[in-house]
Amino acid sequence: MKLKHYFGEFGGQFVPETLIPALDELEEGYIAFKKDKNTQQQLNELFKTYVGRPTPLYFAKNFSDYVGAKVYLKREDLAHTGAHKINNTLAQGLLAKFMGKKRIIAETGAGQHGVATATVCALLNLECVVYMGKTDVERQSTNVDKMKILGAEVISVEKSGGTLKSAINEALRDWVANVQTTYYLLGSVVGPHPFPTIVGDFQSVIGKEAKRQIKKCEGKLCDAVVACVGGGSNAYGIFSAFLKDDVELYGIEAGGRSINLGDHSATLSLGTKGILHGSLSYLLQRQANVMPVHSISAGLDYPGVGPMHSFLKDTKRVIYDYVFDDQALEGFFALSKLEGIIPALESSHALAYVLAQKEKFKNKTIIINLSGRGDKDLDIIRMVQE
């Protein structure tokens, strides 16, 4: 059995010929991994005892009163390592062991995927190398320290702006050179097939839990689900369980400083179709050149997006919109002061959208995916306040 390579017209494998056997090996390994009862049992047990799943669905009463809606938070910030990233890294780490790989490489933007990868490599006794853009190394220094403590080698990438795109470029180069011995643990629903399918599947635990939990709390489904979108793993993770239901879905991108190209990362809202990192999707480009991007949150600072999101945009199943940096900061401080929960700047974009669209969500029941916690962003907050 082979997996579908495309979501509508989006996705595919636009890669050098040397990578095709490795992608075929990955697809075959993933299919066998999903059928293996022992590894699935091990994954489910580690989800419970190591990651802390299921994460709570928390009714945020103070925030709800403030926005005039009934707001629940899916608390992925309470998962081990402080973000949803551990769901995917734990599952892919076990998949790598299942396939006999002993060396893991990964890319990271905000550092959350890097920390989660280093954590799993420590747990499973795997060599770990993390590529991180120079700009992100500087603004996420705490996460860099965590990765090193966990035993990972962190390689700072200075080329092409020194952000997440640069890190993915270098990780792919490493994989091409060491494909026989190395497993590339991609952190989002991007890249060539089968990565988007694999990451989306491993993050779908978020939506499955949230759907059960909201039914238990409310006796019915919610009216809407809201999540931030960079590459799109947390958003697809929660959206996937609700795609066939009568539930509104909102993906919120980073509007950055302005809507001028180079000032934002609103790929779905303001981009055009093109190829980046091995798949066809929407991306931010000018005359076929991928453009620099900006966001106050390192995890959303990416010029592309997962191909399933491009499909969901074109089929109008999900509404994609954006908020600016200053609005994200309003969301950050609002949740901190109203609920005593410091959110990641990435998640703050989803909070900010609900704040900005109070009339749209008035008296509705909504779930916001709180994809990560904000400890990592305190240096950025301090700089902004100065």
TrEMBL record:
Cofactors: pyridoxal 5'-phosphate
Keywords assigned: Amino-acid biosynthesis, Aromatic amino acid biosynthesis, Lyase, Pyridoxal phosphate, Tryptophan biosynthesis
Top-level taxonomic group: Bacteria
Annotated family: Belongs to the TrpB family.
Matches recorded under NCBIfam families: trpB
Annotated InterPro entries: Trp_synth_b_CS, Trp_synth_beta, Trp_synth_beta/beta-like, TrpB-like_PALP, TrpB-like_PALP_sf
Amino-acid biosynthesis found in the keyword field: yes
Protein name per Swiss-Prot or TrEMBL: Tryptophan synthase beta chain
Domain Tryptophan synthase beta chain-like PALP residue range list: 51-372
Substrates-to-products reaction catalysed: (1S,2R)-1-C-(indol-3-yl)glycerol 3-phosphate + L-serine = D-glyceraldehyde 3-phosphate + L-tryptophan + H2O
Gene that this polypeptide is encoded by: trpB
Pfam families according to UniProt: PALP
Known partners and oligomeric status: Tetramer of two alpha and two beta chains.
